[in-house]
């Protein structure tokens, strides 16, 4: 039996493939009781998810996954339990999405220069919501066009650092992201910390800065963490007196390596982020 909480999921409002209603319905079916919708840089799916959750008797936590540039790399910071109507948060996310739009066109130009025409238009056509185009949409388009077999392959060959379609991020600062989340009454959580390939020293710096800015949690259980990584970050959470979160990072049934409702429980000794919800 999986964890009853899943605090990191995506819908068609960003780069997931299920609508908010479909996502919530599926979550209820697999026994999740508390679900956070955390689309990248947007709150556009929250209202629909809340309506579906109310129908199904599931608790929907309004959330977001903010793209942050820190120390020259991209990090993802989750905001959980925030007020999705808060104006400063909404204005901040709008600014991040403006950068995202510029970047999408830039990715298209760079791929075009390498002999892959029409990638921006193709990615845009695959985006359910024209207000959000991400690298995942480019990846799905390139797979469709036969440039690679899987979305993962596209990332490896075209979209990461050193590859033709890579654009260095210029996202929100850590300070901005935490300011927006806290200003909207939310809890800030470092998403999938093991994915950043930071040295132990850099990770300690990040956690220190994050705590000083009012961050409270770290994603210990993640669909993208191995069992060993889970124990490493459980220990870091305890050492830094941070709360522990758990989320699948679900993007839809086309991404079979990560399913809903299969998250293990938090390791012993962690204080769950939902301790006083
Ligand atoms: P973006 O915010 O548009 O730069 O896209 C980031 C998203 O791309 C992540 O949230 C994942 O959904 C996806 N992604 C990143 N790296 C990979 C990868 N190596 N394989 C598959 N999907 C990835
Ligand atoms: Mn994503
Ligand atoms: Mn992420
Ligand atoms: Mn995510």
How would you portray this structure in words?
It is globular and about 50 Å long. It has a domain at 5-85 and 186-276: Alpha-Beta Barrel (TIM Barrel), CATH 3.20.20. The protein is 40% helix and 15% strand. It has nine helices and seven strands, in the order βαβαββαααααβαβαβ. It is an alpha/beta fold. The longest helix has 27 residues, at 87-113. Strands 1-2-3-4-5-6-7 form a seven-stranded mixed β-sheet. The mean pLDDT is 97. The protein has helices at residues 20-29, 46-56, 87-113, 119-126, 135-144, 151-159, 174-183, 200-212, 227-239, and strands at 5-6, 34-37, 59-70, 73-80, 187-190, 217-222, 243-247. β3 and β4 (73-80) form a beta hairpin. One manganese (II) ion is lined by residues 65, 76, 191-192.
Jot down its keywords.
40% helix; TIM Barrel; 277 residues; alpha/beta; single chain; binds adenosine monophosphate; binds manganese (II) ion; seven-stranded mixed sheet
CATH-level-2 architecture of one domain: Alpha-Beta Barrel
Largest sheet: 7 strands, mixed
Poorly predicted runs of 5 or more residues? none
Q: Structural class, from secondary structure content?
A: alpha/beta
Number of β-strand runs: 7
- What is the count of helical runs? 9
CATH topology of one domain: TIM Barrel
CATH structural class of one domain: Alpha Beta
Give the integer mean of the pLDDT values: 97
Helix coverage percent = 40-55%
Secondary-structure element series: EHEHEEHHHHHEHEHE
Radius of gyration: 18 Å
């Amino acid at each position: 039996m999986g964890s009853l909480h899943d605090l990191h999921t995506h819908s068609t409002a960003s780069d997931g493939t299920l609508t908010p209603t479909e996502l919530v319905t599926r979550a209820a079916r697999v026994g999740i009781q508390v679900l956070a919708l955390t689309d990248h840089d947007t709150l556009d799916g929250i209202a629909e998810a809340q309506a579906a959750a109310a129908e199904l008797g599931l608790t929907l936590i309004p959330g977001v996954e903010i793209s942050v540039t820190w120390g020259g790399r991209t990090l993802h910071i989750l905001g959980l339990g925030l007020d999705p109507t808060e104006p400063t948060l909404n204005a901040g996310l709008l600014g991040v999405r403006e950068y995202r739009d510029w970047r999408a066109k830039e990715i298209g130009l760079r791929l075009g220069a390498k002999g892959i025409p029409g990638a921006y238009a193709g990615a845009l056509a695959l985006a359910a919501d024209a207000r959000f185009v991400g690298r995942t949409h480019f990846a799905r388009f390139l797979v469709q066009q036969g440039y690679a077999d899987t979305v993962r392959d596209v990332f490896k060959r075209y979209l990461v650092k050193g590859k033709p379609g890579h654009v260095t991020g210029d996202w929100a600062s850590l300070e901005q992201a935490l300011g927006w989340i806290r200003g909207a009454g939310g809890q800030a959580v470092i998403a999938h910390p093991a994915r950043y390939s930071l040295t132990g020293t850099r990770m300690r710096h990040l956690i220190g800065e994050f705590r000083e800015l009012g961050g409270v949690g770290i994603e210990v259980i993640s669909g993208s963490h191995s069992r060993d990584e889970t124990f490493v970050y459980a220990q870091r959470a305890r050492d830094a007196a941070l709360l522990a979160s758990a989320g699948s990072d679900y993007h839809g049934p086309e991404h079979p390596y990560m399913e809903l409702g299969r998250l293990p429980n938090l390791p012993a000794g962690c204080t769950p982020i939902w301790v006083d919800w």
